[in-house]
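Hey, weird one. I pasted the Pentapeptide repeat-containing protein sequence into the form twice and got a warning about non-standard characters only the second time. First submission, copied straight from the form history:
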Amino acid sequence: MARRVSSFAKVPEALGAHIDVEELLDLFAEGDARVGNTAFVGLELSYEDAGSATFDTVAFRGCTFDGVDFSGCTFRDVRFQGCRFIRCSMDRAWLNRCDMVDCSAPGLSLLQARLAGVAVSSSDLSYANLSECTVDVLCMRAVRLIEAAMQRTRLKRVELDGCDLTRIDVFGTPLAGIDLSTCEFAAPVLSSDFRELRGAKVSVEQALALVGLLGVTVADD
């Protein structure tokens, strides 16, 4: 995987709005609808069910989603810029070539979702649930994942840079091959034998802190 990837979504910067909110809600009501080649600016949705819709080449700019159910939806070439997610679900969703930039999404549920080519930067995903996900190519930069759940998740080609992983729950999730050295990685939730950490790359300071999980201390020279 190339380093310093900041975007995967193939969404034209000049993409304009071609669907208004009423049309969007009508599409949701149909179920399994396709929403494509459009932008939404300042959209506000509350307690709507997206009905397993497919979003293809869509830009969401400065939108607020409160209690919106995106479970089972497909997001292909979708960019979320400056959006807020409050009590939202993307359980079992498929995110393929998606970007999330400057977003607030604490508690976002992505249980059993599939992520392929996803870039998240300068965003808050604290308390999010990414358990039992299948992940292939995920880049996160300056992302808050405080107390996020990532249990029994399959991770492949994951890059983390400057993220806050404090008290992240990675029980049953192998971190082999993942570089955690630039992240805040304190008090993670692990299995009793700490097998999740095997093969992960950590800094010297992180290694010394993790030694404390074993109940031992490092003697001063």
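That's the output from the first submission. The warning seems to come from a hidden character in my clipboard, not from the data itself. The longest helix spans residues 21-30.
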